[in-house]
Amino acid sequence: MDIPSLSMALSQNRVLTDVGVAMLSKNLDFMKDVGSNFAEQIDSVSELSVNPNVGSNIDIRL
Predict the structure, then answer these.
(1) CA-CA distance, 30 to 12, in Å (whole number)?
(2) Cα 5 to Cα 1: distance, rounded to the nearest angstrom
(3) d(Cα 29, Cα 22) in Å, to the nearest integer?
(4) Per-residue pLDDT, 16
(5) Positive or negative CA dihedral for 51, 57, 61, 62?
(6) Mean pLDDT of the region 1-16
(7) Structure confidence by residue, pLDDT tens digits, 12-46
(8) Distance (Å, rounded) from C-alpha 53 to C-alpha 10?
(9) The pLDDT of residue 48
(10) Rounded Cα distance, 62 and 60, in Å
(11) Statement: the pTM of the whole predicted model exceeds 0.70
(12) How many CA atoms lie within 13 A of 16 on its CB side?
């Protein structure tokens, strides 16, 4: 059994795992920010809609 090559393979595997976890963590933080911004935008739009009937009908003449 070649101990140095086994050690290198395990070390590389650990580095790849650590990088993957770091990328997933950053992606999770980004998606949380996007979700909170989306929720804020929806709340602000509902506040602007004073009359719920506005925009519900379209008059088209040909």
Answers:
(1) 27
(2) 9
(3) 11
(4) 96
(5) positive
(6) 91
(7) 999 999 999 999 999 999 999 999 999 888 877 76
(8) 64
(9) 60
(10) 7
(11) no
(12) 6
Taking the C-alpha atoms of residue 16 and residue 9, their distance in angstroms, rounded to an integer, is 11
Q: Which two tokens stand for residue 28?
A: 């999770």
Tokens at 20, concatenated: 């993957």
Most distant CA atoms of the chain, gap in Å: 84
Name the amino acid, one letter, at 14: R
Is residue 59 very low, low, confident or very high in pLDDT (cuts 50, 70, 90)? Answer: confident
DSSP per-residue letters across 25-62: HHHHHHHHHHHHHHHHHHHHHHHH---TTTTS------
